TrEMBL record:
Domain AAA+ ATPase as annotated: residue spans: 78-214
Organism: marine metagenome
InterPro entries: AAA+_ATPase, IstB_ATP-bd, P-loop_NTPase
GO-annotated biological processes: DNA replication
PANTHER family: ATP-BINDING PROTEIN RV3427C IN INSERTION SEQUENCE-RELATED, CHROMOSOMAL REPLICATION INITIATOR PROTEIN DNAA
Stated name of the protein: AAA+ ATPase domain-containing protein
Any one Pfam family match given in the protein's UniProt record, by short name: IstB_IS21
Gene3D superfamilies, alphabetized: P-loop containing nucleotide triphosphate hydrolases
GO molecular function: ATP binding
Amino acid sequence: MSCERCHDTGWCAAATDATRVERCECWRQGVVQTLLSGARIPPRYRDCELASFVTYENEQLLRAVEKARQFIELFPVVDKGLLLIGPPGIGKTHIAVATLRQVVLDKGVRGLYYDTRSLLSTIRATYNPVTRTSEVDVLRPVMEAELLVLDDLGAERLTDWVEETMNLVVNTRYNDRRPTIFTSNYEDLSDSEALDSLLVRVGFRMHSRLREMCEFLEYSGPDYRDFEFTPSSEDLYRAWSAQPRRKLPVRASTRARAQLKRGKTELGWTGGRAGG
């Protein structure tokens, strides 16, 4: 059906000055839908909105949601990205993707979503001599996206190649002042030898850079996926209140400690918590 305002030209008379033309709303909507289609948002999360996210009386969770709303409102004039930290199933990906979607819808920017393991797997696939896709073909849109969501940071075992590749992505975006939203299941523990700490899972150099480029938003809560129905705020609060304290972290492996030591030496680190 033809647009009555622009007759499918994409241009129409400006509302305040008939001698000027401006982009029609139908054109803008078409561009935004193209941008959303290219953002690689998984089908499960394509309808995520902050408005549809069920919250409850959890101060840290409410703070994370409010920071996401502020990020959307201020974008692109934001000083830092976001790093959502907490156990699986508490809505970190929902918040991150909802923020990405709304920024694309409101600001018409190029956004991109990647699960960290999927990104690394896609890069590895380019090393196959029969593939026509190069490493640069994969990395360029990741580095150049106006807003990037990297989900499940630290899930991949930290090898030298993983550390080098992820640091390349993070440092490039940091230097180009391109905001990034991360999620991670690993706590930001002060114990640098805890196997389940974010520091051990991503390496010292990246952890230090994340401290500079992101606001850390750490919270706990019940797993939304444990419910066989859509939980209410009351359901979630009761489940959260009944949760036991977390177990003490397992100590890091000798190899992980060696990697951290190397990272500290390279940065001239004298001790203490990164960014502290």
